[in-house]
Amino acid sequence: MTTALRGTELRLAYGDRIVAEGLDLDIPAGRVTALVGPNACGKSTALRALARLLKPESGTVHLDGTDTSELSARELSLRLALLPQTPSAPDGITVRDLVARGRTPHQRWWCQWTAADEAVVDRALEATGTDTLAERSLDELSGGQRQRVWIAMALAQDTPVLLLDEPTTYLDLAHQVDVLELVAHLNRTEGRTVVMVLHELNLACRYADHLIAMRDGRVLAAGPPTDIVTPDLVQEAFALRATVITCPVAGTPLVIPEGGHRTPR
Hints:
Order of helices and strands: EEEHEEHEHHHEHEHEEHHEE
Number of domains: 2
CATH architecture of the largest domain: 3-Layer(aba) Sandwich
Number of helices: 9
Strand order of the largest sheet: 6-7-8-3-9-10
Largest sheet: 6 strands, mixed
CATH class of the largest domain: Alpha Beta
Strand content: 25-35%
Structural class: alpha/beta
């Protein structure tokens, strides 16, 4: 298995609050990886460290074998794109203008917007099914449509690695499935390495090739969902007693909580 991103012996903290210590993360290339675990277990913090938005107090992050601390901001942005949990945009911006912002790392003072940039934006709009919304204001769109537009902007950055922090937050179930189907399709058709933080374990099992289960800033298990998702893991990660069966539709693990049997942490 080729590794696209690797975090080694990471110590992550916000001021005096240590979130993770001695954290090791291996992200396989060309796969969809989901970070799962209870609230405040360090999933989003780990993702921020992989994206170099949070500097580790110790440890290293390597992208395709290169220490990310040795890359310029532009070099990193040409190889890795991050969609944060709550992105923001100027009021009234159109879908096309927002997606075009994904091309910023490719611009140089002597070489501004080109036909090639326009073509990449068109492809990103088409790939996410947002081409028919291109001239509309982002403010007019539904939550699911807006999330597709944000993903289109990340695609327009045209990087081999894509990080998504809770891309299904605030979406109803239908829109969650819609967004994850899009992510899986982009991985299959374009071969991009995708890492995403997800709260819904069953959806993570269905749409990720590789899971990293976390709790208290440490990795409990990592591997294909069918290999690692067991009642023991669910209890250890979520303090929840559950039965795990095989989904009759997807063939992936399906976690069924045993009501009223939450175990103490």
